[in-house]
From TrEMBL:
Keywords: Membrane, Transmembrane, Transmembrane helix. This is Protein RER1. The lineage of its organism: Eukaryota, Viridiplantae, Streptophyta, Embryophyta, Tracheophyta. The chain crosses the membrane at residues 60-78, 116-134, 140-157. GO terms for biological process: protein retention in ER lumen; retrograde vesicle-mediated transport, Golgi to endoplasmic reticulum. It comes from Linum trigynum. Involved in the retrieval of endoplasmic reticulum membrane proteins from the early Golgi compartment. Belongs to the RER1 family. PANTHER family: PROTEIN RER1. It is found in: Membrane. GO terms for cellular component: endoplasmic reticulum; Golgi membrane. The keyword Amino-acid biosynthesis does not apply. It is a multi-pass membrane protein.
Length: 195
């Protein structure tokens, strides 16, 4: 792809793809510190998808596949990066601290929140696009799929909750203590600056 002057030309499709990728990554990076806005956007996308399914009264197999995928993402989001069962088998003394003198190890997710959000949003968009193709509207008795998904969800979450109880970890930081610097040290530094 060289011209006579030795200057390399880039095909327009490759240039468009690179520009689009760069712009998309820019906006994705800007959305990272805004979790509430990101999740509200995903909620809007999910509601549009639900409205589409309700209005066409079909694509239940696509919705079932989407539900299984979202369940898999949820399990990854709730699971620790290093599984205590596997780590306990590899080490002799166990992985999690059992005494107060043991080292504190914070909960690190297998699937971080941002990647969880991105994967769910992308899944809803892809599922919506799939509803535009009538060949994917397989006739099926949807209550059976719904019952099967609910049973799968309950059994999977039961197993996950028992795992959380057994290894004593909580994947959320709601209600956990947050330590801040003492006010006494801040007050003493401000009184020193007045002297």
């Amino acid at each position: 792809m060289e011209e006579a002057g030795g200057i390399e030309t880039v095909p327009p499709l490759v240039k468009f793809r690179a520009d689009f990728s760069r712009i998309f990554q820019h906006y994705l990076d800007r959305s990272a510190p805004l979790p509430l806005q990101r999740w509200l956007g995903t909620l809007v996308v999910a509601l549009i998808y639900v409205w589409r399914i309700y209005s066409v009264q079909g694509f239940y197999v696509v919705s079932y596949g989407l539900g299984i995928y979202v369940l898999n993402l949820l399990i990854g989001f709730l699971s620790p990066k290093v599984d205590p069962e596997v780590e306990a088998l590899e080490s002799l003394d166990g992985a999690l601290p059992t005494k107060t003198s043991d080292e504190f190890r914070p909960f690190v997710r297998r699937l971080p929140e941002f990647k969880f959000w991105y994967a769910i949003t992308k899944a809803f968009i892809i599922a919506f696009i799939m509803t535009l193709f009538s060949v994917l509207d397989v006739p099926v008795f949807w209550p059976i799929l719904l019952i099967y998904w609910v049973v799968l969800f309950v059994l999977t979450m039961k197993r996950q909750i028992l795992h959380m109880i057994k290894y004593k970890y909580v994947p959320f930081d709601l209600g956990k203590k947050k330590y801040k610097g003492s006010k006494r040290s801040e007050g003493s530094s401000s009184s020193k600056s007045r002297d």
